[in-house]
Amino acid sequence: MRRWNNSNRSTNAPIPAADRGGAALIPYSMITEVRAIQFKASDRLIAFAHQRLERVNQVYQQALHASVQFKIDNNHLAANKIAEITLHVPGEDLVVRKEARTFEKALIMAVDRLRRVAREAKDKTKKLRRSK
Length: 132
Description:
Order of helices and strands: EEHEEEH
Number of domains: 1
Strand content: 25-35%
Helix content: 25-40%
Number of helices: 2
Shape: elongated
Number of strands: 5
Oligomer: single chain
CATH topology: Double Stranded RNA Binding Domain
Structural class: alpha+beta
Distance between the termini: 42 Å
């Protein structure tokens, strides 16, 4: 199990001081965790997963933690590589599971679906806040 914290990225510029309180806000970074079940994942695959999950963080900045699980299904089909992503956000967990011929393709499909689900969840919470 490897953890990755994006707080030391050069693209995280400090956010300017808030207008009301004057206190500077700390830039937020999501912690991502990558697991490979019953096999050893390459560093290239792990780096690819971290890079792809940055796209989800652009859509839903309130995400606390993301965990990716790579599995190999023991069926005889060619598409037996599974990527399962769980995004922990305040109030709920968003889970997406995709299956493909390669882990990279499964991860790409899962991240695209997770972005849509995260955008819908974000819009839903905005509507709930407006109605109160």
